């Protein structure tokens, strides 16, 4: 028996596992971290991909809106590189008073002041005007047309009216958009509710009881209708510049990509594939996974991404043990309401009639509960966990004992200590 640790909130959980049972341990590939963040940011800005350098894009006196990720993406560590971007703009002659920061909330809850400060850093917080995007505020949105996927396009007025727009963010595998980052800063980041809902409906096949579109999945870009719609809409808005970060599992910067919002982002996606796409020869009977600690396990809504990654590494009807503190609860007030439907077919029908993003996340959680036995270690109320179709546990040791009872003798186990990042790929 050997002790293993898994991140949980701001701490960790321990358990003892028979080493002979472990089939795979999914760890990101080792890559050299950036030592000088400022130098790396400036180098990326001045040597962009498929774009003129930033100093040739923005002119003195122009207004600039910088889009940043919200508190659920605190792992991006925007506070550590945003200041260098703003100082660079200042040196170009763009004053602080001409810069606005817009937090890309999508459909997430508003940020409090402490969260705003944590996102952008103390100095930026005290220098630059910071605004939350509100997808529900029709007065704060402009209609700019319709995509070829028939998505009505409503975008935050600050984006439409600004002389220049810069997207920031971080890149990781994403369960239905292929990868995070890039154009997702625009949609769903600063888009209206109607735009977000219509775009996310593309994750389903057309028709009744047709299920999820397999092309709207992690690691898929070409042919992914949701991602292609996002890209098309973003190209219509045509942000002037992008800077995205790629980080390792310990939160150290590996690369900054900058320039055209699509071409630079694609470079970052390739790095994610190299670092976090882990090839497996065999699926396992039990997966033990951590969402990766705070903020990746801030709520169940965010933890659905880890559930999705786990689906790729386990046999059908295998067991997933998931450690996710969920200090912020479910993450959306309506999440639990979707579990009034007793089957996936009923939930899908209701979603197609009245689509919401939390509803989709609930569907994905329900899907996991149908095709896997999921044991959840969290701070969620026990009755909530059971209503979701999961089995609650108080510790990893308790969860593993239960998982072994639900599995074949001498089950094969896969460990995913960075479950929110690593994607199992069966070769």
From TrEMBL:
It comes from Alkaliphilus metalliredigens (strain QYMF). NCBIfam families: Ni_dep_LarA. One of its GO terms (molecular function) is lactate racemase activity. Residues 8-206 form the LarA-like N-terminal domain. Residues 282-419 form the Lactate racemase C-terminal domain. PANTHER family: LAR_N DOMAIN-CONTAINING PROTEIN, LARA-LIKE N-TERMINAL DOMAIN-CONTAINING PROTEIN. InterPro entries: LarA-like (IPR048068), LarA-like_C (IPR043166), LarA-like_N (IPR018657), LarA_C (IPR048520), Ni_dep_LarA (IPR047926). This is Uncharacterized protein. It comes from the Bacteria.
């Amino acid at each position: 028996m050997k002790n293993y640790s898994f991140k949980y909130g701001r701490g960790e959980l321990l358990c003892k596992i028979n080493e002979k049972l472990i089939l795979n341990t999914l760890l990101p590939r080792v890559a050299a971290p950036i030592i000088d963040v400022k130098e790396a940011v400036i180098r990326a800005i001045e040597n962009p991909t498929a774009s003129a350098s930033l100093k040739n894009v923005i002119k003195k006196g122009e207004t600039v809106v910088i889009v940043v990720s919200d508190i659920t993406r605190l792992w991006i560590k925007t506070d550590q590189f945003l200041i260098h971007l703003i100082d660079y703009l200042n040196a170009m002659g763009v004053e602080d008073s001409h810069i606005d920061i817009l937090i890309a909330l999508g459909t997430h809850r508003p940020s409090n002041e402490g969260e705003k400060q944590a996102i952008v850093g103390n100095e930026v917080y005290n220098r630059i005007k910071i605004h939350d995007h509100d997808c529900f505020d029709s007065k704060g949105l402009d209609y700019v047309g319709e995509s070829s996927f028939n998505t009505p396009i409503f975008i935050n007025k600050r984006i439409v009216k600004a002389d220049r727009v810069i997207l920031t963010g971080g890149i990781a595998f994403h369960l239905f958009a292929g990868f995070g980052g890039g154009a997702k800063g625009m949609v769903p980041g600063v888009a209206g509710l109607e735009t977000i809902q219509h775009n996310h409906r593309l994750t389903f096949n057309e028709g009744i009881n047709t299920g999820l579109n397999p092309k709207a999945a992690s690691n898929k870009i070409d042919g992914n209708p949701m991602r292609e719609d996002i890209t098309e809409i973003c190209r219509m808005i045509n942000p002037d510049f992008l800077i995205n970060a790629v980080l390792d599992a310990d939160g150290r910067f590996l690369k900054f990509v900058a320039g055209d919002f699509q071409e630079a982002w694609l470079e970052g996606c390739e790095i994610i594939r190299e670092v976090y796409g882990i090839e497996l020869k065999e699926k396992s009977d039990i997966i033990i996974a951590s969402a990766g600690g705070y903020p990746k396990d801030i709520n169940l809504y965010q933890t659905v991404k880890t559930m999705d990654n786990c689906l790729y590494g386990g046999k059908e009807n295998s067991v997933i043990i998931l450690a996710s503190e969920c200090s912020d609860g479910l993450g959306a007030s309506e999440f639990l309401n979707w579990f009034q439907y007793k089957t996936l077919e009923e939930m899908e029908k209701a979603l197609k009639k009245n689509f919401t993003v939390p509803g989709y996340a609930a569907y994905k959680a329900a899907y996991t509960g149908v095709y896997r036995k999921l044991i959840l270690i969290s701070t969620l109320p026990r009755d909530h966990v059971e209503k979701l179709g999961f089995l609650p546990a108080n510790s990893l040791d308790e969860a593993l004992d239960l998982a072994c009872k639900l599995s074949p003798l001498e089950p094969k186990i896969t460990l995913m200590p960075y479950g929110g990042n690593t994607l199992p790929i069966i070769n």
